[in-house]
Each structure stands twice: as structure tokens, then as C-alpha cells.
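The pair is listed for reference:
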Amino acid sequence: MHLTKIAAAILLPLIAPALIWGQAAPSGDQAKQTPEQQQSGSTGAPAAPDADALRELEAIELTPLPITPPAEMKDDHSGYKQTERMFWVVPNFAAVSANTELPPLTARGKFVLATHDSVDYSGFTWTAILAGQAMATRSDPELGTGIKGYGRYYWRTFADGVSGTFFTEAIIPSITHEDPRYFTLGHGGFFRRLGYALSRTVVTKTDSGGLSFNWSEVGGNALEAGLSNAYYPAQERGLRQTARDWGQQMESAVLNNIAKEFWPDIRHGIRNLILRHD
């Protein structure tokens, strides 16, 4: 297709004068006719174009057709998209791909997002992984070990996740009119994107499109840490423990933002690696 366009762009300027001359020049019989005969068309031949028509034809500038590169040669980031799950397990429903404009979430939309983030199968799988990690590191030794101990870790980890998700993605954002989604930067150097991901822990987008302090993340995690006093052993309660839990939640939020920012790049690299080995 592109070779055809190039050939046409080269040949058209060369053959156009011949085409115009062939149309403009009268034949021998036509040259012998009077202007009245040519105008009346008594011979059945078409009338020759007048001088104005010839000038218009000669004034036409034939320009080459633009050559569009094939899709695979375009320098875009169409393959760098967010997916609903990171590493096919970690819930990632609140991440928005770079250069994507979306309407603001309604209060109902925020609760739907939090529900989807909490009860999706990947959420249960991720909770199982976190509970196993907590038991392996004996973060709360009072909960015990074995199957019963793992069960205690699991439901408390699940309660932490659900309450934290609803506080940070639905309840607080609905009150403060903040957008709980993570809007991927997706361009610039590594440190610029890293700094952006870190800043989203304390800065967020509002429903009106502006920026504000991230009360949803900071305040929501504080409420989740305070609520955990209701179902953890007595040894794991109190102001100091609540502050420590809040710090851990904020650390998790930071790591989660970094993972969201660079997940499209990681996913793209994994896909290329698989295709290369195939």
C-alpha cells in the first residue's frame, strides 16, 4: 500500500502534463472545423475545453500523498495499560491508565468500587497471602499457630482490608469529595514517577478535578487502625499500637502506589519476555 502511494506521487506529476495536453489539443478533424461547428458538436466529438479551463487544469498542484507509518511503528504506549489485578492476584480496580480522562465518581460509584475491591476473588487470595506472612513473622503471637492460628490471622486480616478499603475508597472520599482512584503518571524518568507515586499518598485529585490533601488515605487508615482495637487481643491494643498500625497502613499505601505506577511497565516487560522465549 505504501509503495503504491509513493509510486503514484512520483508518476502523477510526470504523466499529468501529457494527460492535460491530450485532452486540450484538438485532433486534425476538429482543427478544420469552424468554432460554430465545434460548439454545436455536429461531428459528435466533445467540445475542446476553453482557455479558462486549461488554465485551471494547469494550475492544479499535484502533491504526494502522505505516507502513514504502520501501526507497529508508531511510538505510543498503547500496551502500557493498567489491569484489574497486579501480578494477576493483587486487586487493582482503583488504578487508572495514564493519559485517561474519566468522569468523577459519584458517592454510589465509590461504594461500588470499595465493594468490588473487597469481595473479588483476588481480594480473598491476597488476604490469604498476607495472613500467611503475618503468621510466619508472628506479628501477633497471641493468635497462635497451626490451622486455628491461621484462621485467626485470616479473618482479622480480612477485616483490616475491608474496613480500610471502605474508609479510604468510599466513606471518607464521599465526605471530602475526593477521588479515591490512582491516576497513573506513566511518563518521565524513574525518579519523577517515583516521586509522583510517593506524593499521591498525601495529595489526591478531587471530584471537581483539582488537588487537595489526601484525607481519604491519611484519615481513612487512621480510622482503620483505631477500629482494629475492637477485635485484636488486648496486648495488641492501645494508642501506641494504633499509631504503629497506622504507620504500617501508610507504608502499605506508599508501596501500593509505587506498584500501581510501574505495574504497566512491569507487565509490558513480562509480556515481551514471554514472547521472546516463544
Observations:
- The first strand starts at residue 85 and ends at 86.
